[in-house]
Amino acid sequence: MISFSRSSFIAIAALILLALVPAAGLSQTAPSGLKVFLSGPEASAYAADLGFVVIVQNREEADMIVEINPAPGAGPIELLFLGQGKFQGKKDSLKYQPAPGEKPEDVRKGVSRLVQLGLLRFAAETPAAARIDVVLQDQVKPTAVNDPWNFWVFSLSANGFLMGDDVYKNQEWFFSASANRVTPDWKIQMSGSYVLNHNSYDYEGFVYESESRSKSATGLIARSLGEHWSIGAVVSASSSTYNNQKLYFTLKPAIEYDVFKYSESTKKQLCFLYYAGPETYHYAEETIFDKRRETLWKQALTVALDLIRPWGTMSVSLSGSHYFHDVTKNRLELYAKLSWRIFKGLNFDIYGGGARIRDQFALPKGGASYEEVLLRRKQLATGYSYYFSVGLSYTFGSVLSNIVNPRLSSGGGTSISISM
Amino acid sequence: MPRSFHWLIFILAWGAAAVPAARAQATETDLDALKKAAPKIYLDCGSCDLEYTKNEIPFVNYVRDRKEAEVHILVTSQSTASGGVEYTLTFMGQNGFAGIDDSFRYFSKKDDTDDDIRKGLVRALKQGLAAYVARTPIASRLQVRYRPEEKPADVRDRWDHWVFDIGTDGYFNGEESNSQANFGFNFSANRITEEWKLRLGLDASFAEDSFTYEGEKIKSTQESYSGSGLLVKSLGPHWSAGLSLEADASTYNNYRFRLVPALAVEYDVFPYAESTRRKFVFVYRLGYENVRYREITIYDKLRESLLSQSLSASLSLKEKWGSISFSVNGSHYFHDIKMNDLGVSAVLQLNLVKGLNAYLIGSGSRIHNQLALVKGSASLEEILLQRRQLATSYSYFAMVGLSYTFGSVYTNVVNPRFAKLGGGGGVSIHIE
Questions:
Q1: What interface predicted TM-score (ipTM) does this complex get?
Q2: Residue-range definition of the domain harbouring residue B111
């Protein structure tokens, strides 16, 4: 066990005491509203629409001066935004071009809209900014663009990961290509990848090397049928030394139903997904069932709930599958993730998954070596598997402080996320 | 009934239906034209929920390559004193909008949920985009809504900048023949102002792996404890000075107990205020290490006290064309100058040519200061599971990647169908 020496606690206590000395309070003054002076004929008429700024009557008091000329009529109207005081140097200009025959009250509305939009960038750091929203009054099609490629996107990539020291070396190479076309009505995604992993240990004459390779190609086509239904198919071919598969091929038609509307998917989604189809296996080594190749039909049902709400996020999915030739060859999988702000300051995070496994056809007869077991190089016989992670954190104190102090922050540095 | 009469009814019905349909068609065509002329934006943001953003801000066009865009929005982040995040949104106008540049900040709190953060970022994006959208015809269909204040927020701080955090986490996995369990506890108390920074932290972590092989059960464990304190004084826009105290114990490192008081000075070539985009710091550190080992080391020591110094230089830049971070670090012990190490690390992400993205992440070090190595050999399990530090004179790691994307530049569409089935996708890399 670990024993802490008394001197360490004294040292830590000394540091705490030292820290209490410089309690120099730094007062943060909250910025008040943006003060705006409107200038020009009929300019004061726009004041009523500008709730998020403070309209002042003297030019000198203002942070921003807005000049609107001339009065609404047939010609174009110029808007000039000029900063002064602490907004010195900030400026902008916008122009409103009335449509032929546009009624004066519509012109006035249009100009008012531009005054509001134009002032937003200057009002952004005031407390009122948090209560401003900009919305489009209509529904527009995301596909209303001039696209010579008709929404096809192609991508090629190569990635390598290398590490090593005197004892341990690891290399991983990942290559992929993809072609996708995603519109609201159709989704076509195709990709292929090749992964090569090599690692070796060399410790006092004990040398161990291992290599794993996997190849895969998948395609998905989906057709949207209204706000709740989709049909499609997935086709995939792969090989993997981990899974004892020289070749695996499958083609599965699928159907999906979202209880909520798909257009609400970034907030809530409850999907039922069903697919059925054949799976063809060519094994690298003879299996425990004395098979070198086989074709089996399978069906699967998945229920998945995804919520992103003000209190947190939640994902739960339950899926079950079985083979038709023998219903006892089945698998049940549960996955759940919850990130919940229980109350102010207290956050709870959990994710995990478990599986009941009754469908391991591909286990090689020869088993795995001791090193393969330790390094998780081969799939092993198991009736279940699980993983979960939990975390709880509570924060209190000056939780509204927005001070950024980047000094002597060890590490900090770089975060890299790679999704494939 | 005569056949012609049927036809007549049909034509009448069709005619009646056609009039409003034609009108709706016209406005839809107008809207399509407005959308086509809307600003093209490139959102360079790793922490944004892109699908949500596209649903909430439909009045711009999203493109996947920065060179196609009229507005490049770079979002960088840094942590705040309270454990939240400061997001800086830098708007850079280009092509038709050259010269219109802006910068906005949005602050999230430590306990904010994903939904709070994405709402905040969308609000900041809308405010920044207003100036560009106001110059395109789609502005005519926008509405600015303002919800007046209900009650003024209480900004008084009775905690005097102190922020406390208590946390615990665990990770477990297993199947019939093997299982793994990790758990940890941490506590921190921080007081951060512009002038002073004080961080105090305690950590403990435990790990246990077990395997069954040919009927035999093998168990392997690892534990570590640490406590740390850091006090930093700001000395103007470029200089800082600080002292730190670290205490730790670890089975991996063979430390029964280690205590390291240290002094440090830092100089940032850029003002610290620009740190979200640019930083070039030099740090000098002088430390006094007191160690008691768990097992006798290869140098026949069970305890020792050593003075060491280190110098590091690191540069990080985040620009339109990508990001660069580069650092060099060297240290040695005073009792024997040959006991030293030298490390370099680099992160490079570049988008110089349309469609082509490249990244390189690498680090390497020359190690001649492994004073804590245990005398005697490690077991096979200890090696394969990386349970114990082994003698080495160098270590490196590198990641390289190249991707080329061509085809449609627009990424406006959000289509969530069959998300669970997977399929294509390709690779996306984000470094910040």
A1: 0.82
A2: 40-141
